[in-house]
Each structure stands twice: as C-alpha cells, then as structure tokens.
Amino acid sequence: MYHVIAAPPAGVAFPELFVRPADFAKQMKWLAHQGFHAVTLREVYEYWLTGSPLPRRAVVISFDDGYLSQATEAMPVLRKLHWPGVLNLKVNAVQKFNLPLWRVRALIAAKWEIDAHTITHPDLTTVDDARLWQEVHGSRVEIRKMLHVPVEFFCYPSGRYNARVIDAVRRAGYWGATTTNYGLASPAKPYELSRVRINGSDGLAGFAHKLESVAP
Known about the structure:
Blueprint: H1 21-33, E1 37-38, H2 41-50, E2 58-59, E3 62-65, H3 68-80, E4 86-89, H4 91-95, H5 101-109, E5 113-116, H6 129-147, E6 153-155, H7 163-171, E7 176-182, E8 193-195, H8 203-214
Parallel strand pairs: 1-2, 3-4, 4-5, 6-7, 7-8
C-alpha cells in the first residue's frame, strides 16, 4: 500500500505517506530480483475463485487516493517491469485535478486496475445511510461513467469500516474490499483484505523486512 511517491514537503502533516521516488524504484527492483510479479487484484480474486493461473510470488502494488506522483513517478517504474498497479481512486481527486483524468486514462492504458475509494474520503463509520450509499455506490457509478472500467473492488478510507459499511459495499456490487489491516490478503475475508503498508521511513531495508516477514 502506497500513497504519494515524492519527498515529503517540510512541515507536511503525514510525512510517512510520502515515499521518495528513488526508494520506490529500489523497492520494485528488489521485488523483481526476489522473484515477485505484480498483478491486479482482479487477477488474484479470479485465482481464488476459479484457480486461474497466477505468476509465482504474485503481489498487488496498490496506491490510494489519486496523486499526480502515482502517474508521473510510479507508473514509469512499473512499466519498465511490465507490471500493473492498482489505483484506489477517490473521485474528487480527479474532480479537483489532483490527478487529471487524462493521466488516469494513461494508467489504464498501462494495464492498471482502477478501484473505488469513495467520492470525498470520509470516515464511513460516522456518516448516515444516504451519505454512506452515495460514497460507496456513487463512487463506483462515477468512476465507471468517467473511465468505462469495471470497478470491482472498494478501498475503505483510512481503513475505517464496520459491519454496516461492509454491507453497503457488498450491496453496491463490489467483489471485495481492501483495508489498512496489516498482513496478507485472504479469500476467507474478501471484504476485509489486508495489505502491507509502506512508509516513507522504510527505505529499502524496512521494505525488505516487511515483505520477508509476511511472504518468506
């Protein structure tokens, strides 16, 4: 799980969300040298469901929200490896031009998967039923309309969810949902898929330690 691929600006509120481009490139190179192969979440789900083939040591490289650096910094690194990414797209990131629509289309052309991350990124456990449905179902509708992609998965903003939120995600037609719970994703809990968060302070050594601890 990544957010911004850039050096953290001085005084920024959440510096750990920023992974420097050089560190990201080293981390992806390390994955490739260790025999990992990036795939989409849809490919993982279809493997779980039908046993369709996956490469050895399959890994999903996911990016939350929708930042310009995901297109300008992350995509070129992954493209050199012929790997897709998965973008959990917040609709208003496009509407506010944090990540222009044409750049999202470039990600799709590079075989990235686009999934939903609500419209405005609220804590879904605190909103009323109408707002919950707007954020969960409405984001899928908006992304499909903008980009003509399936949008089969959802990502909980800030990892905040409960049984009510899961029910809304299921009713909206998503196949599964990603969390900020640390660890490996499991088909036993498709609406509570764990991920390994990569922080700005991890560098290559911390990144390798995290991957080796969950996928020895």
